[in-house]
Design brief:
Elements: H1 3-41, E1 46-47, H2 50-59, H3 61-66, H4 74-79, H5 84-94, E2 96-97, E3 110-117, E4 128-137, E5 142-147, E6 153-155, E7 161-163, H6 167-175, H7 179-192, E8 198-203, H8 204-213, E9 217-221, E10 225-231, E11 237-242, E12 245-249, H9 251-259, H10 266-286, H11 296-303, E13 307-309, H12 313-323, E14 332-335, E15 341-343, E16 350-352, H13 354-365, H14 375-378
Parallel strand pairs: 3-8, 5-14
Antiparallel strand pairs: 1-2, 3-4, 4-5, 6-7, 8-13, 9-12, 10-11, 15-16
Helix pairs in contact: 1-11, 6-7, 8-9, 8-11, 9-10
């Protein structure tokens, strides 16, 4: 081989090596930034005293069982079973931060509470406009979603009664930063008799930004929607319409679809929120973001100021790896819907019938076997025994 040919090969090899090194350095910087963004989302979890939570649960048992009879006023029954001020004082005195250990994804299931906030600019305390519990069971390749209606009347552990969407605001006001997520988790645990492992709270501005960074999402809208009074950020209203059928939505459009409710009800909105969540995940998976790191920091950067969670970074990464092979057709959807609630007297709203609630929770976790199908099919008979 001639000298000039050897020099050419060495030169090409050097150029290829430099390009490879540059790409590796860029990827490393992107990954480093992505991890920094993820760490910025993680907050120190707060735990509520087990004794107080259990005391509240024991005290409200009679009130919950009274819900089996729609003619019973559950809010009145709870008044006789709970002394919220004393429990609140004890809770406030003993609330403590807890460090969650970094550990690989266990074989046991995880329950993650997703909270969507409707905070507007300048709002200090906010209610959670969306509440969805996600059940992840890697060992059995099972994923379930359970939507909780925002106006569901519940008892906060160690607190008074009210709508479930106010639990976060009550916790933040009573116990300071971190108390909102802790009280929201404890309230859901109390309601469903399930342990909630982690929470993830997303401000809708981050929700909208993520979808736009993904290039939009595709949703098959089951039926046409017309809302003549959709609320705007300036506290006004506007008219919104959605035609039935498959359509591409921007972040703004998807957010409106997830939040509109005047065309039907909060129960209909819960279904739309689940469709949007599934469309986001499917888009993330189809774009390969769970498998490759390129441009990952673009997405974490869009979320870091709008997401807060107590989930360890290692668990997030384990879930991402597991989610690469998840079949969206196997995701089961459930809801506390109109079939399993009954009305309460003002100022209370409505509560879930305990027997029907236990059944849907059993279906949600897999302890009660159901045939495959969508939320409306699996929940259609939840009221028959109550």
């Amino acid at each position: 081989m001639s000298f000039s040919r050897r020099r050419l090969i060495r030169g090409v090899t050097l150029i290829i090596g430099l390009i490879t090194l540059a790409l590796m350095l860029r990827l490393a910087l992107e990954w480093r930034q992505a991890l920094a963004d993820i760490d910025a989302m993680i907050v120190t979890p707060v735990t509520l005293p087990v004794s107080d939570t259990h005391a509240a649960r024991d005290g409200t048992t009679s009130a919950q069982e009274a819900g089996d009879n729609p003619d019973t006023d559950m809010s009145a029954a709870a008044d006789t079973a709970l002394s919220p001020m004393g429990a609140a004082a004890a809770l406030r005195a003993t609330i403590t931060p807890v460090v969650t250990p970094e550990a690989p994804l266990p074989d046991s299931p995880l329950n993650i509470l997703l909270l969507g906030t409707d905070a507007r600019p300048g709002d200090e305390l906010t209610r959670t406009d969306a509440m969805v519990l996600i059940h992840l069971d890697p060992k059995n390749d099972r994923v379930s979603m359970l939507s909780l209606p925002r106006d569901l009347w519940v008892t906060y552990p160690g607190e008074d009664r009210g709508r479930i969407n106010a639990a976060y605001a009550v916790g933040e006001e009573e116990y300071g930063p971190g108390g909102g997520a802790a009280l929201a988790k404890a309230t859901v645990e109390e309601l469903l008799d399930l342990e909630v492992d982690y929470f993830a709270m997303v401000n809708f501005e981050g929700f909208r930004g993520l979808i736009d960074d993904l290039g939009g999402i595709t949703i098959d809208v089951p039926e046409a929607i017309y809302d003549p009074a959709y609320p705007t950020e300036d506290y006004g209203t506007m008219k919104v319409r959605f035609r039935a059928g498959t359509q591409r939505m921007s972040g703004r459009r998807a957010l409106i679809y997830a939040r509109t409710r005047h065309a039907d009800s909060d129960f209909g909105r819960n279904q739309r929120q689940q469709l949007v969540l599934m469309a986001i995940f499917e888009t993330v998976r189809d774009r390969g973001l769970l498998q490759q790191l390129t441009n990952l920091d673009d997405y974490t950067g869009a979320l870091r100021d709008y997401v807060r969670t107590d989930m360890p970074r290692s668990t997030m990464l384990d879930l991402a790896r597991w989610g690469r092979d998840l079949d969206m057709n196997d995701v089961r959807r459930y809801a506390i819907d109109a079939n399993i609630v009954y009305d309460l007297e003002d100022p209370a709203t409505f509560a879930a019938r305990p027997q029907a609630l236990r059944r849907v929770v059993g279906q949600f976790t897999g302890s009660i076997t159901t045939s495959a199908g969508g939320m409306s099919t699996e929940n259609s008979d939840l009221h028959t025994d109550d």
